[in-house]
Specification:
The complex is a heterodimer of chains A (about 400) and B (about 270).
Chain A lengths: L17 E2 L2 E5 L5 H15 L2 H15 L5 E3 L1 H7 L3 E5 L10 H14 L4 E6 L3 H13 L3 E6 H6 L1 H9 L3 E5 L6 H14 L4 E3 L10 H9 L1 H14 L5 E5 L4 H7 L9 E9 L11 H4 L1 E5 L1 E6 L24 H8 L4 E6 H15 L5 H13 L8 E5 L8 H7 L5
Parallel strand pairs in A: 4-14, 5-6, 5-8, 6-7, 9-10, 9-14, 10-13
Antiparallel strand pairs in A: 1-2, 2-12, 3-4, 11-12
Helix pairs in contact in A: 2-4, 4-5, 4-9, 5-7, 9-11, 10-11, 14-15
Chain B lengths: L3 H11 L4 E7 L5 H14 L3 E5 L10 H12 L4 H12 L7 E5 L1 H7 L1 H11 L3 E4 L11 H7 L2 E2 L2 E2 L8 H5 L6 E4 L12 H12 L6 E4 L5 H7 L5 E4 L1 H10 L9 H17 L4
Parallel strand pairs in B: 1-2, 1-9, 2-3, 3-4, 4-5, 6-7, 7-8, 8-9
Classes of the chains: A alpha/beta (about 400), B alpha/beta (about 270).
The structure holds pyridoxal-5'-phosphate (PLP).
C-alpha cells in the first residue's frame, strides 16, 4: 500500500521551504526579494496550462523524451541476480538529465523578464544544458566552473563556448563545484536586477530544491509507466547517483511512497570514507549545517568550515547535497551508500565493455552500486538504474587512469 | 540589551558627525597581530568595530575580504579564538561597541545557545549574519535579541518599501545599509542614490542607519557620512593588512598600516557635515 496523507514522505517542502529540518532560505538580503519573486513565478507557472504545454512540447521535440528504459540483458546475466534496467537519460539532447531542468527554468526566466542567465557547473553537463537553452532562446549566458573542473572536463568547456556561453574559471578553493557556486552567487548578488540564476541541481535556497525536483520527476514517472509495460509491476529497487541530487530525486520521487521499492543513492566515496577530505559523501561522512542557501548534510570540520572533498567525478565533487535527500536520509527512506573512485571506474569499464554504453563517471557510481546489489537479489527481481549521462567527457580522465594515454 | 551601540551613535550625533565603523577580520594575518590591530582601532579613531568571523565560503564577499578570511583560517583562526579576542579587547576597552560579522554555519556548529552565551560573556554587543534573512529569524535573531545581543540587519537597494518593515521588525542597534547590489569591495555606483536610500530607511525607523560596502577613502566617508549616521570601511582595511605583509607574514608595519588608514578615515567623518 502506498503511503498517503500525513504519512506521505512527499509533503515537503512546507511554506518556509523545509523538508523536516532541512532546506530553508539562507541567503543575503539582496537576493531575498528576488527569491520570493521566483517562488511566486514558479507557483503560478506550476498551475498554468500554457506552461505545461510549452514544457511538454520542448520535452518531446527538443529534448527527445521519453527516454528509453532499456533491459541490460548481458549485464544482468553477468551479475547473475536481479534484472537490470537502465533509464537512458544519457540519450537526452546534450547527453544528460540536466536538460530536463534547464528547459523548465529557462521558460521561467523568460516569464520573469530576465535578460541574462548565469549557472554553476561541475562536470560541465549542466553548463552545456544551460548554454544550449540560452542559445535556443537567445539569452546571454555566463557559466562559472572551477578551474580544476575546466581541466578535467574540457570537452564540455568547448561545447559551452561553441554554444555561445562565456565560461569563467574559478580558482578559489579546490577549484571545484562548491567554489563555482560561491562565485555564481556573488555574480547574482551583483546583477540581481537583470540576471536569472539557473541552478543545476536540487539544492540551494527555496524554491530551487522543489522546483528542480519537479522538473526532474518526469524521469521516475516515465520509469513507472515503462516498467509496468515491460514487467507488469513496480521495480524492487531504484539506484541513482547523488551529487546535489537532481537525477536521483527525479528518479525516486514517484516511488517514495511505495514501501515495496527499495531506494539507493550512490554518493562519491572518493579515496574512501576514512580518508579525511578524500571523499564527497556528505550524508555518509558529513553532518547538518548551512551552506548555499539551505540546511543540509555537509562535509565540514569541527569549527563549521566547509571541506573541499574529493571525487574523480566532477559532478559529484560537492561537499553538500539537496535538502530533500537529507530529509529522506534522516527518515531512513533512501539508503545512501558511498562508492569509491576505483569502484566507479571499474563500473565504467564494465558497462562500456558488455553493453556498449559509455556512462558518465557520475552515473558510473550508480552502476557500481548496481554491481553490488544485483547479485544479492533474486532473478525474478527488478532493479532500475538512472543512467544520468554519457561518458564522452570522461574518456580522457579514465584513459589516463588506465594508462591508455602517454 | 547591551547599550554600547546606542550610546556611541548618540555621542557621535551630539558631535554632529557620523560614526566610523571599522571591519577587521579576526585572525588576519595571525592571532597576535590581529589582536594588536583590534586593540589599536579605538585610539586610531574607530567609533565601533565589526570583527569578521572567517568562513570558508564567504558568498557575499569580494576578493579583499575573502583573502583576509583565508589568511586567518590558514593561521588557525577558530570561532573560539575570535570570541577570546573580544574578551581580551574588553580588558582594555569597555566602551567601544563590537559586533561579530560573518556567516551562520560556524555558529550553528558551535551551538546557537552556547554561542549567544559565549558572545555575551566575551563582551560582544551585536551580530551581523549575512545569510540569515528575516525569513530565518527563529534560528538566531530571536534568541539573540532575547538574550540581549543586538541583531543588526542588512538593508539593500532591493529592499523596497514593502519589504522594509519585514527586515526592521527584529532589528536593533542600527540598520546597516548596503550601498549597492554587490559584494564587499565593489564600487558605489551613485552617492546620491545612497543618500536617498538612507533618508528612505530613516523615515521607517528611529534606529541609526550606517552605510557600508564600497567606502574606501576619507572622501567617501565624508560624502556618505553627510546623510548616514555611520559609515563602515572593511575591504580597504583588509587590503592595508595585505599591503603590509612580506611573504604572507605580518611585519613591524602591519598594525601601523591599519591605524594610519583609520586615522585618515576618522578625519573624513569629522568633515562630513562641516
Ligand atoms: C551525468 C551526471 N550525472 C549526475 C550528476 C550529479 O548531479 P545531480 O546529483 O544533481 O544529478 C551530474 C552533474 O554534473 C552529471 O553530469
Amino acid at each position: 500500500m502506498p503511503l498517503s496523507g500525513a504519512n506521505s514522505l512527499r509533503n515537503g517542502p512546507d511554506e518556509d521551504g523545509r523538508f523536516g529540518i532541512f532546506g530553508g532560505r539562507y541567503v543575503a538580503e539582496t537576493l531575498m526579494p528576488l527569491i520570493r519573486d521566483l517562488e511566486a513565478a514558479y507557483d503560478h507557472a506550476k498551475t498554468d496550462p500554457e506552461f505545461a504545454a510549452e514544457m511538454a512540447d520542448l520535452r518531446t521535440h527538443y529534448a527527445g523524451r521519453p527516454s528509453p528504459l532499456y533491459f541490460a540483458e548481458r549485464l544482468t546475466a553477468h551479475l547473475g541476480g536481479a534484472k537490470v534496467y537502465l533509464k537512458r537519460e544519457e540519450l537526452n539532447h546534450t547527453g544528460s538529465h540536466k536538460i530536463n531542468n534547464t528547459l523548465g527554468q529557462i521558460l521561467l526566466a523568460r516569464r520573469m523578464g530576465k535578460t541574462r542567465i548565469i549557472a554553476e557547473t561541475g562536470a560541465g553537463q549542466h553548463g552545456v544544458a544551460t548554454a544550449t537553452v540560452c542559445a535556443k532562446f537567445d539569452l546571454p549566458c555566463v557559466v562559472f566552473m572551477g578551474a580544476t573542473d575546466v581541466k578535467r572536463q574540457w570537452p564540455n568547456v568547448l561545447r559551452m563556448k561553441m554554444l555561445g556561453a562565456e565560461v569563467r574559471p574559478v580558482t578559489a578553493g579546490a577549484g571545484t563545484l562548491k567554489d563555482a557556486m560561491n562565485e555564481a552567487l556573488r555574480d547574482w548578488v551583483t546583477n540581481v536586477d537583470t540576471t536569472y540564476y539557473l541552478i543545476g541541481t536540487a539544492a540551494g535556497p527555496h524554491p530551487y530544491p522543489a522546483m528542480v525536483r519537479d522538473f526532474q520527476k518526469v524521469i521516475g514517472e516515465e520509469i513507472r509507466a515503462q516498467i509496468m509495460d515491460a514487467e507488469g509491476r513496480l521495480p524492487d529497487a531504484l539506484v541513482a547517483c547523488v551529487g546535489g541530487g537532481s537525477n536521483a530525486i527525479g528518479t525516486f520521487y514517484d516511488f517514495i511512497d511505495e514501501p515495496s521499492v527499495a531506494i539507493y543513492g550512490a554518493e562519491a566515496g572518493g579515496h574512501g570514507i576514512d580518508v579525511e577530505n578524500g571523499h564527497a559523501a556528505s550524508m555518509t561522512g558529513g553532518r547538518p549545517g548551512v551552506l548555499h542557501g539551505n540546511r543540509t548534510y555537509l562535509l565540514q570540520d569541527a569549527d563549521g568550515q566547509i571541506l573541499e572533498g574529493h571525487s574523480i567525478s566532477a559532478g559529484l565533487d560537492y561537499p553538500g547535497v539537496g535538502p530533500e535527500h537529507a530529509f529522506l536520509h534522516d527518515m531512513k527512506r533512501v539508503n545512501y551508500v558511498p562508492i569509491t573512485d576505483t569502484e566507479a571506474v571499474e563500473a565504467f569499464q564494465l558497462l562500456t565493455a558488455i553493453e556498449g554504453i559509455i556512462p558518465a563517471l557520475e552515473s558510473a557510481h550508480a552502476m557500481a552500486q548496481v554491481i553490488k546489489l544485483a547479485p544479492t537479489m533474486g532473478k525474478d527481481q527488478v532493479i532500475v538504474m538512472c543512467l544520468s549521462g554519457r561518458g564522452d567527457k570522461d574518456v580522457e580522465t579514465v584513459g589516463r587512469m588506465l594508462g591508455m594515454i602517454e | 540589551m547591551t547599550t554600547r551601540f546606542a550610546d556611541r551613535f548618540a555621542a557621535c550625533a551630539r558631535e554632529n558627525r557620523p560614526a566610523l565603523g571599522i571591519f577587521t577580520m579576526a585572525g588576519d594575518p595571525d592571532p597576535a597581530t590581529s589582536t594588536a590591530i583590534l586593540k589599536a582601532l579605538p585610539g586610531a579613531g574607530a567609533d565601533f568595530i565589526e570583527l569578521g568571523m572567517p568562513f570558508s565560503d564567504p558568498m557575499a564577499d569580494g576578493p579583499g575580504v575573502q583573502a583576509a578570511g583565508q589568511r586567518a583560517l590558514a593561521a588557525g583562526q577558530t570561532l573560539n579564538r575570535t570570541l577570546a579576542m573580544v574578551a581580551e579587547f574588553r580588558t582594555t576597552d569597555s566602551d567601544t561597541p563590537i559586533l561579530l560579522m560573518g556567516y551562520y554555519n560556524p555558529i550553528y556548529i558551535h551551538g546557537v545557545d552556547r554561542f549567544i552565551a559565549d558572545a555575551l560573556a566575551a563582551g560582544v554587543d551585536g551580530l551581523i549574519i549575512v545569510d540569515l534573512p528575516a525569513e530565518e529569524d527563529d534560528e538566531l535573531c530571536v534568541p539573540a535579541l532575547k538574550a540581549g545581543l543586538n541583531f543588526i540587519r542588512l538593508a539593500t537597494p532591493t529592499t523596497d518599501d514593502r519589504r522594509l518593515p519585514v527586515i526592521l521588525k527584529n532589528t536593533s542597534g542600527f540598520v546597516y545599509y548596503v550601498s549597492m547590489t554587490g559584494i564587499t569591495g565593489a564600487a558605489i555606483k551613485s552617492h546620491a542614490a545612497v543618500g536617498d536610500a538612507v533618508k528612505r530607511i530613516k523615515s521607517h525607523t528611529e534606529l541609526p542607519v550606517a552605510v557600508g560596502f564600497g567606502i574606501k577613502t576619507a572622501d567617501d566617508a565624508a560624502i556618505i557620512g553627510r546623510d548616514a549616521d555611520g559609515v563602515v570601511v572593511g575591504t580597504a582595511i583588509c587590503n592595508a593588512v595585505l599591503g603590509s605583509l612580506v611573504d604572507g607574514k605580518a611585519t613591524a608595519g602591519t598594525v601601523a598600516a591599519v591605524t594610519t588608514l583609520v586615522s585618515g578615515l576618522a578625519s573624513g567623518v569629522r568633515r562630513a557635515r562641516a
